Amino acid sequence: MLSIRAILEKTYNAMLKASRHRYALWFLFAVSFAESSFFPIPPDIMLIPMVLAAPSKAWRLALLCTVASVLGGFFGYFIGVYLFDLIAEPLLNFYGYLEKFKTFEGYYHQYGAWIVFGAGITPFPYKIITIASGAVHLNLAVFTIASVLARGIRFYLIAWLLKKYGAPMKTFIEKNLGWLSILFLILLIGGFALLKWL
Q: How far apart are CA 150 and CA 18, in angstroms?
């Protein structure tokens, strides 16, 4: 029987292969959509080789990822609203995120926009946040704005770096995406805090 790790590795390799397929755009859209609600592997795995293969399409690919991811986020949101007990709770439990969800639930109404934004640009599983946002009925306009900004920043930043610096940036992004995202979020929050203080 295959372990979860083996299944994820096989899925990862299949996504890399799909990035070279003639229907790669459709695959990229599907993965970006699914990752926002239930799929475990982020679309960056496909976005990176596709931008490197066609730098002139970098912005189009980033837009595709952003739109599909936000639409997938709505799907996750509505799972949280209407199907939490049936789908969301077992899904969160499967990924080992149920306790994390319970912890975050208390912070939502005060910090909802920042939670969605932070999960949208960092490696934190965005699917937890989309489902949790629906489960606690976070304001849909707040959810939408935070999702569009966060996912757009993430995918356009990756596309820009790859378009500008090429293959060496691929290795750097893959190794440091988590730290870069967290650093960006800290700087952004710090900037808003500074503006408020001034």
A: 25
User: Tens digits of per-residue pLDDT, 4-53?
Assistant: 556 556 665 666 676 677 788 898 999 999 988 877 778 887 888 888 88
The terminus-to-terminus CA distance of the chain in angstroms comes to 59
Beta-carbon contacts of residue 165 (< 8 Å; ≥ 6 apart): none
Residue 127 and residue 89: Cα distance in Å, rounded? 12
Q: Can you give the pTM of this predicted structure? A: 0.73
Cα 14 to the center of its chain, rounded Å:
19
Q: How far is it, in rounded angstroms, from Cα 75 to Cα 70?
A: 9
- Stated as kind and residue range, the H or E segment containing 100 is helix 98-105
Distance separating alpha carbons of residues 17 and 105, to the nearest angstrom: 38
The reply to whether 78 falls in a domain is: yes
CA 128 to CA 93: how far, in whole Å?
11
**Residue 188 belongs to what domain range?**
66-198
Domain assignment present for 47: no
The C-alpha angle 67, 68, 69, rounded to 5 degrees, equals 95
Domain presence at residue 10: no
Sequence-distant (6+) residues with CB within 8 A of 25 are 61, 64
User: Are the CB atoms for 112 and 143 separated by under 8 Å?
Assistant: yes
- The tally of domains found in the chain comes to 1
